[in-house]
Amino acid sequence: MRYFIVDDDKASRTMLKNIIIDGDLGMVIGEAENGVKGLLPILTRNPDVVLLDLLMPELDGIETIERLRSEGFEGQFIMISQVVTKEIVGEAYEKGVEYFIHKPINRVEVQSILKKTTEQFLLKNSLRTIQETLAHIGLDTLNAREKSVKEIVMSILNDMGIIGGAGSDDIVLIIEHLMNSSERMAQLPPLKELYEAVASKGEFNQVDVKKECKAIEQRIRRTILTAFNNLVSLGTIDYTNPEFEYYAPRYFDFQEIRKHMVSIQEERDEEPKVKINIKKFLQVLYLETLEKYQQG
């Protein structure tokens, strides 16, 4: 499980982080002192669970959840609070909070709640897998080729922890478009052409297509950034992790990966800016998909 902690009390963040690590409950991939500073890293790193304080300056816990949900974040929330009323509890559950952790923080309570959250997470994933499997049953042979390409791409994206989001759907459509083209190309066409090819499949007029192309680029950039951060987290914890060893140097500038790993290891307050090369990512993904497809 991948956790992100948002709390204006540094001592609370440290306690929660230590409980997670000592209890072998997962890894903490980031933390922030308030909701405002937590929004972007949560959206880009896409943690499984966000632990956040109810009362924080600038943006409280409830408002943070609302902002994250409006941006499409689908992870789970656990609220941390010292003062809890029935009204607050009711509003929090309506916004999607799974559990409450009471302050002062108790190790036994935190471990118990996080274990329950993990069980729920695994159960939801199992049900999703079953639903996806059933949805594929009965596809006719005309869709067999498209299905195999999609499965290859989704398998690769899954290894990098970016399956399921809108950006990953856009990436799949782009690779399917390239694979279905009459000529196999060594170099990708301009990204604008690829975005237009995906956007044109929807019911858009000319103006809407332009807007959708910009939206597609933003979704893909965010998804690739999530993959970058996932690989950085994997490499920081275990440099020999097979997914890290395989994908990090192929899909990204490894110097960029290494720079961010050092930043995490040294616990710097400000993270270096990430340079994302969308075309390189799609180029490598296309060539790898083509190779696996030809191998059968």
From TrEMBL:
SUPFAM superfamilies: CheY-like. The modification 4-aspartylphosphate is found at residue 53. This is Response regulator. It comes from Niallia oryzisoli. Keywords: Phosphoprotein. Pfam families: Response_reg (PF00072), YcbB (PF08664). PROSITE patterns: RESPONSE_REGULATORY (PS50110). Residues 2-118 form the Response regulatory domain. SMART domains: REC. It comes from the Bacteria. InterPro entries: CheY-like_superfamily, Sig_transdc_resp-reg_receiver, ST_Response_Regulator, YcbB.
